[in-house]
Write a structure and sequence with these properties.
Strand content: 15-25%
Number of helices: 4
Strand order of the largest sheet: 3-2-1-4-5
Order of helices and strands: EHEHEEHEEEH
Number of strands: 7
Distance between the termini: 31 Å
CATH architecture of the largest domain: 3-Layer(aba) Sandwich
CATH superfamily of the largest domain: NAD(P)-binding Rossmann-like Domain
CATH class of the largest domain: Alpha Beta
Length: 157
Amino acid sequence: MRYLPISIDSRNKKVLIIGGGKVAYRKVLSLLRGEFAITVISKDFHEKFIKLYNENPNRLTLKMHKVTKENLKIDCDYLIIATYDIELNDYIETIAAMDKLTYLRVDTKSDSNFIMNKIITKGDISISISANGKNPTLTRVIAKDIDKILEENKVEE
């Protein structure tokens, strides 16, 4: 198993997401379940980002500008590369790897050194599911089944 499912302390940790599309949005939704300070940089944002920002202004920062090789500044504990520009993603990944950053590239199977698992949380119970990035459909089906089991056993939120 390449990726070991672990739980990390999200307090006082910074996440930088480069890209503002649907995948970036879904990553932010997951990260907001923790206590991360999240910055998203993109030339444009998926329409749902504004509502999400308004609901989380102390934890979510949106910076609207195009990321280029010239203006790239990476200051974070975790980096998520989520643009639609493959050449830019290649460049960012190269920098991240050279600087030994903890990063996830979402557009390709790369040398990312972390992945984000599907998480089901009910009360004090958290269950993490992963197909190591290879079968997200199966992961969603299993998550629904687990959620149903937790509800049937009256696990409270």
